[in-house]
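Quarterly update, task 2.4: zinc ion-bound model.
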Amino acid sequence: MGNSSSIVFLEVAVAAPVRHTLTYASPHDHSGLLVPGIRLLVPLGRRLVTGYLLGVDTQGVSPGKQIKQVSDVLDSSPLFPESMIPFFRWVADYYHHPIGEVIRHALPSGLTRRSTRRIVLSSGGRIFLEKWRREKREDAEWVHILFEKDQLSAAQTHRLWRTPARRLLETWKHNGYVQIIEEVSRDTTKPKLERYVGFAKSYDRVTEAVKFLPSEQKTINIFTDLLAESDTRWIAKTELTRIYRGAAKPLRSLEKKGIVALRDFRVYRDIFGERPRFFPKPEKLTQEQDKAIATINRAMRLHDFATFLLHGVTGSGKTEVYLRTAEAALENGKTILLLVPEIALSSQLEAHFYSRFGDRVAVLHSGLSPRERFDQWSRLMHGEAKIAIGARSAVYAPLDNIGLIVVDEEHDSAYKQEDGLRYQARDLAVLRASQQKAVVILGTATPAVTSFHNVKKGKFTILRLDKRIEDRPLPRVELVDLKTINTVSGKTLLFSPRLISAIKETLAQKDQCLIFLNRRGYANHMFCRQCGQAVQCQLCNITMTLHKARGELLCHYCGSQASGAIICVNCRSNEVVGVGFGTERIEEELQKLFPKARIARLDRDTSAKRENYLATLKAVREDHVDILIGTQMITKGHHFPNVTLVGIIWADAGLGIPDFKSGERTFQLLAQVTGRAGRGEKEGRVIIQTHQPDHYSICTAQKHDYHTMYEREITLRSHLSFPPFSRLVNLRLEGKKEEEVEQTAVKLAEVIRKLLQNRKGVTLLGPAPAPLTRIKGKYRWQMLLKGKNVRMLHSLCNGIFDNAPPAVKAGTIKMAVDVDPENML
Ligand code: ADP
Ligand code: ZN
Ligand code: ZN
């Protein structure tokens, strides 16, 4: 687009909190191509920041306007395809997030350069600083570091820059005691290069007359042997040096003589470590699968946007539908995006795809290091991989020409990002498909109420898989009413006699049991026996959970821990006791009841490391485990053929949460856990323990009755005018001082009420303290905007930004805008 002779104006999204794109002039001396998708270094205020080139401004620039010039071009080829730009623009608009920050969030990390400052002590400064410290008795950490190390790193300086120390340092600079060095940070993520050895072009002309040293001859012999076994002309240097350690030196001399050539090739870091298992392709599809696949493939041939809700009971073979339609898309020369809810952990789905498509798969999830993620990203960008698989952020995978997008377990709340850029990846997947004229499959056994509503309105097409593979029956589900169970001396009874005898029978038959409780830890309430005071986290007003094995109390919101003897903050008594229960306690109790059983537990505590998680799953698959205890983590997508009993300790855990989605979520969770039983040859049995056996979420789950649950839920929502009958935007304010947060919330509400005067159809609920009133030391207030008209709601949000109270504009109170919130805590 541009070259050295003419200046063009560029539309740039800067990686900074700037809500619109900016215009810059191309650099004078740039001879490379300025194509959309590359990074630029541009001036912003007094600093240099990373910008992403979106396009050339053909509008020209109004005269008199000062246009700054791009100061550097950071890439020679784009990081994302041009076809993604409209997608980024839409995300920025809809979620009210600065567009440059959207792109930065989408790209692999470590690619954001900016100017940084470092402080270096000058020779005269040292004497000054020593004297100054003595006189002022100043002992701040940074002063200490500056004195000891003669300098402060960019990160340390960055932290100081928002404190009064900045003034001081600027004066010192003026007096020549320190230098403030401004420089541009480097990329921390780079391609991995590996050195390869090949015969040089001039090698053919080498005559017999050339004499080799013995070490050179040895190197050539080994190299020739390796070449003979290989189907390429290049051998990794490390392969040579592995066989012959001393090869490095003769390689250099052989290169000088024109015998061999050394070249760096880009290689990709192996993210799988151990290659996943191989899954054979089933020979015959079920009738239902066949029909679903045919319908989807037909839609793909039309090259037009279509969304299918694949409603298939657990174990009905949804994966095979994804695999076959992906195969068809590949044959049409299209690319495929597959989203899975898991975070950091590898899913079976990933293994299925890898087993079917091999190296055409690239994986993007948060368990990868930034470098590995960058490699996977680049393989997709350069078309070396055609299938992107990943958790929610993979919705930004750099794919062009998408034919198919699959969202597995579409109802899962893990698709919602809950901080920073708050987006719903399932919704974005549908949007991206509409822009690319691609086909979407939303797969689930328990559709989100909003998705099913879209079927009823004709926006989505439903495809049903009502039968399990090989007509295996759905498991028999029994409810145990905990109210009717006599408890021993008033203590909570964890296991009803019915559950205990079912476990016994299952163990006797050498089958596996899965015991589910969606709460980790040992005891989830700690309180003082003397005065009744609950033990709360110092930073969050939330009770702490006892983790007995670690000997610690843990806050599940901020991770704060307390260990050692716990003393009541109120009366100083040390009689602090725990009540309530979590998975750790269940494990201990079950081990007491069944001392011979081999018990394993899967929750965030036991699988902080991916290896441990994978090892436990493997142990279950290979029948080294009799009872598996777990949280939500065991409900997703795992296929354990020998599990015949599923026990749910307490189904009501999520029902008391003040959130309009809690009924829907409880049903989905129970249905998912229930679906783990009887996936093999033998029939499955499920026991749900509950205090509310009449609650619609629980009794519909017992009968595998999605439709009744949906009708109940949709009626409720319609009465209360909750989604899908309206759209919501939650505005949350956070700050260190309680009073200031409250006052700002009240002011913000006033601003909104004023804006609402000439807009009918949007209502404001609140402001009120958030149900979790204090997290990580920050007080939280929120208010909810509800409206039927999306456009109206969003234009209102724009007005809010422009008229926000001063504390929000100054940044002392943080305002988070959560569009389509999934979680109101
Ligand atoms: P879902 O995702 O719907 O819960 P899966 O896709 O995991 O179910 O399928 C359940 C099991 O059935 C898997 O082991 C899968 O390999 C197997 N399977 C799927 N389709 C077929 C088929 N047509 N014939 C035989 N086995 C199949
Ligand atoms: Zn007390
Ligand atoms: Zn906390």
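Highlight for this quarter: Residues 537, 539-540, 555, 557-558, 560 surround zinc ion (ligand 3) (CB under 6 Å).
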